[in-house]
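Batch job 17 of 40 flagged for manual review because the log was empty.
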Amino acid sequence: SVADIGCGKGALMRLFIDLQADSVVGCDPSSGQVQAAQELFNLRVEQAGAENLPFESDSLDTVTFVNSLHHVPREHMQSALAEAHRILKPGGNLVIYESVVEGNQYGAFHATFNDETEVKRLAYEAIQNAKPTFESYNEVLFLLPHCFADYQAYEDHCLGGDASRRAILMEKKDIIAQALLEKADWSDEQGYHYEQPIRISFLHKQGE
């Protein structure tokens, strides 16, 4: 059984279902995202903030935060991880996936458009503070390749399905387009290539 916290439209939930998970649930604070997940995929998604999860204690094998912990309001990040611990079964696992504030893709995207340096620092700090409540902690760092064929592909990536960002993108289009050209790790006939550092944190809840 799996719960995806900050599930958006439910793409990861669909993957868990395809992988034959026994039970898949999700939650998101956005009513629009919840409605989309329910209408597109007929998923069980609750509207709730991560600091007040609508799931029973000791009820889930795995809880995931995939690029979502840093979106939790900073004053609730620690509570969100405590809630994840609460709903996990003894012996369950919390998995947190976050991009790292490093690399040329971060420089091109965040420095020119959406600087998440501070919220990502706070998210990682919350994870470190939560470690003593779990039996064990491990993390994996790796490089995730991205290739953008042109500026439009890069703009679509920056939007990430959030139309509210379009006005900001249009205002800074020239700066962002220049950053795309200058900060790529390399370029070829396929487009502009980046390698984005990713960290996955694994926290294991003590078993009975």
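Reviewer: the log was empty due to a logging misconfiguration, but the result itself is present. Strands lie at 2-5, 24-28, 45-47, 60-66, 88-99, 136-148, 186-188, 191-204. Unflagging and moving on to job 18.
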